């Protein structure tokens, strides 16, 4: 256990640093739980610079939780396009509907009740509870793990649930109970811009006389994290059909898994990267045998490896001319109003330029 004096010295130094160095971020100037919740969901798995424009477009399009609740899911996914991890957007929408319809638009006011919301984990619940309601619950994310593991020279594996408890207890000890919000903001910001993962500038750090990792030359090895999940490789072949009117086909991904409820072109998933001959044979004799195919072409500019957290998608696009009318065919120029995975949306944009 650390003394009250030690905790006070630590948080005073940290908060002083924060007030001098913090970035001016829009969700910091509010205690509105709707805005704080939105920003926290967006910033899971996303850098601040990338998330900021999305935060502005969401708050402009959906000023209140009721506006978000009443929106069409497709519109929500379209606005989210490019942020990735789309289950966040689907959960966001469902939770907005629950808050609007079941809770009359009022967010739960305690950490314990916030945790019951779909898509809200311990970190997000702690952020909303402390920033909106000044509840003394610490946030523990990658930034906090890094700061505390280095400062105190803690070698516990941060991939283990027990370590999360250890760091939560420690952060709670260090936190000023009368102002938890500013402590949480400060420690997260300190990890984001000062105590960064690689090559932090320890020479200018306010803790450089007391940080154990610096004294023991362990800054580069902390925090300790065991190896990640095995990466799965998948091979996607997208068939870009074009009929005699210049129309094409898209479909909605309804199966659970990646990109659920987003749109894509007809997909042929294979066990490896396949050749032009394989595609020609499969298309003509199999999945598109009912159409008169007049040409198949590989889009060489669009062979991509798209990396997700636990799978690498090897994506090839194949243009297929059809001497026929496609039922449910769409003009290429109409495609951009649908929500697509960003890798497909980027392909559509490139194709438009080449037309």
Automatic annotation (TrEMBL):
Its EC number is 3.2.2.31. Residues 42-193 form the HhH-GPD domain. Keywords: 4Fe-4S, DNA damage, DNA repair, Glycosidase, Hydrolase, Iron, Iron-sulfur, Metal-binding. SMART domains: ENDO3c. GO terms for molecular function: 4 iron, 4 sulfur cluster binding; 8-oxo-7,8-dihydroguanine DNA N-glycosylase activity; adenine/guanine mispair binding; metal ion binding; oxidized purine DNA binding; purine-specific mismatch base pair DNA N-glycosylase activity. Belongs to the Nth/MutY family. This is Adenine DNA glycosylase.
């Amino acid at each position: 256990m650390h003394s009250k004096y030690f905790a006070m010295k630590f948080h005073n130094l940290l908060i002083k640093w924060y007030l001098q160095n913090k970035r001016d971020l829009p969700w910091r100037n509010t205690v509105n739980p709707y805005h704080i919740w939105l920003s926290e969901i967006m910033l899971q798995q996303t850098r601040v610079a990338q998330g900021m424009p999305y935060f502005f477009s969401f708050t402009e399009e959906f000023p209140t939780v009721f506006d978000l609740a009443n929106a069409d899911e497709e519109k929500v996914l379209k606005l989210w396009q490019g942020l990735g991890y789309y289950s966040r957007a689907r959960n966001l929408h469902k939770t907005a509907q629950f808050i609007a319809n079941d809770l009359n638009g009022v967010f739960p006011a305690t950490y314990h009740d916030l945790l019951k919301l779909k898509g809200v984990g311990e970190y997000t619940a702690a952020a909303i509870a402390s920033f909106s309601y000044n509840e003394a619950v610490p946030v523990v994310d990658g930034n906090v793990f890094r700061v505390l593991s280095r400062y105190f020279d803690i070698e516990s594996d941060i991939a283990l649930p027990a370590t999360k408890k250890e760091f939560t207890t420690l952060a709670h000890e260090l936190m000023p109970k009368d102002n938890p919000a500013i402590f949480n903001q400060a420690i997260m910001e300190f990890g984001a811009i000062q105590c960064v993962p690689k090559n932090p500038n320890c020479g200018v750090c306010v803790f450089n006389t007391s940080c154990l990792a610096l004294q023991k030359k362990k800054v580069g090895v902390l925090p300790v994290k065991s190896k990640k999940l095995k990466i799965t490789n998948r091979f996607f072949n997208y068939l870009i059909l074009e009929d005699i009117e210049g129309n094409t086909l898209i479909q909605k991904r309804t199966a659970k898994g990646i990109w659920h409820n987003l749109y894509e072109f007809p997909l042929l998933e294979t066990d490896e990267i396949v050749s032009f001959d394989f595609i020609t044979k499969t298309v003509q004799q199999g999945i598109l045998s009912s159409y008169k195919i007049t040409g198949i072409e590989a889009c060489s500019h669009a062979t991509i490896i798209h990396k997700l957290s636990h799978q690498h998608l090897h994506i090839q696009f194949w243009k297929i001319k059809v001497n026929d009318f496609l039922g449910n065919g769409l003009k290429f120029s109409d495609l951009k109003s649908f929500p697509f995975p960003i890798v497909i949306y980027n392909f559509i944009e490139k194709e438009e330029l080449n037309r």
